[in-house]
Design brief:
Length: 476
């Protein structure tokens, strides 16, 4: 290993994804197309961006208005809900509570625009109705002020996290768009598949880690990074000064960028083993490259397409499980999308259960049964305590993020109960049918936003069992 400024992986295979789609994909190639040019000004803690986005109408209706999520405005003073609960204030705000936000300066290509939803949504009215199979191109100029926060978007103590640093298109559905406001926990945005071309300019000497194909050049005392990625859900970066370790695995380049990890080779190995395990169990890894970066996060980790951010606060013994969970999101989020705002268990429960499968396949990292039992015990303890406090407990898993009472309930029902659900399904169906159902889920819904019922239908013979869990009718 050597100390250096990282610019993603410079030795990468040139072509980006591919997954074989089934007949369920109705409009192949009809993806959003983002072109973003942004510059980060470190001294001011701000980013200025110009975004051009092409939106095809893949719905069955006529579109007259396009909504974008302005995630950064969750950090505005007075925002409701706040982007982090009081429980995690001290871990997130290392220098006192800090605010940020996104100012929309200009929108072209539409008739008019406005920012509503308490600043969380940019709505653009089109010049004329957009009919199915037609597309429209809009341009947005904006300025982003970053909070001082160890958060997915913010200036951390050592690194800068840039996720959702641009106006986000909500995913399309049969009629219109999925549209949600930010939540205090979980991911409230439902994102469609898109192609990205990002040019990110940063101060000279600052490294850029992220997914996709990244190349860097020096221009006028600044570093200019270009990133391209196809058929992904998002674009995200971590800025900082890193060391790096890399490995190629069956044609996939896996890069890990770090600044404090005392055992980086172990973290890289866990990532490689997770990719290998899930590629065998679910489907081939969908991209030519997978990158991970250690950064400042009060959360343990955060998933993006082809990229994972890991908290520098993780203990060595925690890293493998977190790496396995976030890597699983390359399948259960990036490849197969879902409505995380309404059914968080659909991707979080699957990702957490995937950790158990990882342990089963690679027992040097952990024990399958112990992991499942720990999740079940956590759920039982929650149920017991809540029963004593209120006399009755709502254990529905199918619920919007706003319906959770707090981080604890969210964790128990979306993650731990999800683990128990998939373990019970496997016991009931047997290995062959269970894993066949998971593979069918990937084959049918890769590149799409799968509904809760889409997942349940893949386990059609056990639909009653799944519904008893998700609707809160069973007591474990």
């Amino acid at each position: 290993m050597r100390k250096f400024v990282a610019f993603g992986a410079l030795a990468i295979v040139s072509s980006l994804p591919f997954v074989v789609m089934t007949a369920c994909k109705s409009k192949e190639g009809a993806r959003f197309e983002y072109e973003i040019a942004a510059e980060y000004f470190a001294e001011e803690g701000r980013l200025e961006g110009d975004m051009k986005v092409t939106i095809p109408n893949n719905t069955e209706g006529v579109i007259e208005e396009i909504p974008f999520a302005l995630y950064a405005n969750a950090f505005r003073e007075g925002a409701d809900p706040e982007p982090v609960s009081e429980l995690f204030y001290s871990a997130c705000y290392y220098d006192g509570i800090s605010y940020g936000g996104m100012e929309i300066q200009e929108v072209t290509g539409g008739k008019s625009w406005s920012v509503g939803g308490d600043g969380s949504v940019l709505s653009v009215s089109l010049n004329k109705p957009l009919y199915p199979d037609e597309s429209v191109t809009l341009s947005v100029r904006y300025c982003l002020t970053l909070p001082k926060a160890n958060h997915r978007l913010g200036i951390g103590e050592h690194c800068v996290n840039l996720s959702y640093f641009y106006p986000l298109l909500f995913a399309e559905k049969e009629s219109g768009f999925y549209e949600y406001r930010p939540a205090r926990y979980g991911e409230a945005f439902v994102l469609g598949s898109a192609d990205f071309k990002v040019t990110l300019t940063v101060p000279d000497g600052m490294g850029v880690a992220g997914g996709g194909k990244i190349q860097a050049t020096s221009e006028n005392g600044k570093t200019v990074c270009t990133c391209e990625a196809e058929n992904v859900r998002d674009a995200a970066f971590v800025l900082g000064n890193f060391s790096s370790v890399s490995q190629e695995l069956n044609g996939v380049q896996i890069d890990y960028y770090y600044f404090a990890d005392e055992a980086p080779e172990d973290t890289l190995k866990a990532a490689c083993d997770a990719v290998a395990t899930y590629s065998e169990l679910f489907s081939d890894y969908p991209y030519p490259r997978y990158a991970l970066a250690e950064t400042d996060l009060f959360l343990s980790g955060m998933e993006y397409s082809g990229f994972t951010a890991l908290s520098s606060l993780l203990r060595r013994e925690e890293r493998a499980a977190v790496v396995a969970h976030e890597t699983a999101h390359q399948w259960w989020y990036s490849l197969v999308g879902s409505n995380q705002a309404e059914c968080a268990w659909q991707d979080e429960g699957l990702a957490e259960y995937s950790v158990a499968l990882f342990f089963e396949s690679r027992p040097e990292y952990g024990d399958y049964r112990e992991f499942v039992n720990t999740s079940e015990s956590a759920y039982r303890n929650y149920y017991s305590v809540q029963s004593q406090l209120s006399g009755e407990v709502d254990t529905k898993m199918s619920r919007p993020l706003s319906d959770y009472s707090g981080d604890y309930e969210y964790r128990i029902l979306a993650y731990d109960k999800g683990v128990v659900l998939f373990d019970r399904l496997r016991e009931t169906m047997g290995n062959r049918r269970f894993f066949s159902a998971l593979k069918s889920y990937v084959e049918q819904y890769a590149g799409k936003v799968a509904t809760e019922y889409d997942l349940i239908s893949c386990f059609s013979s056990e639909e009653a069992l799944v519904l008893s869990f998700t609707e809160g009718r069973c007591v474990i």
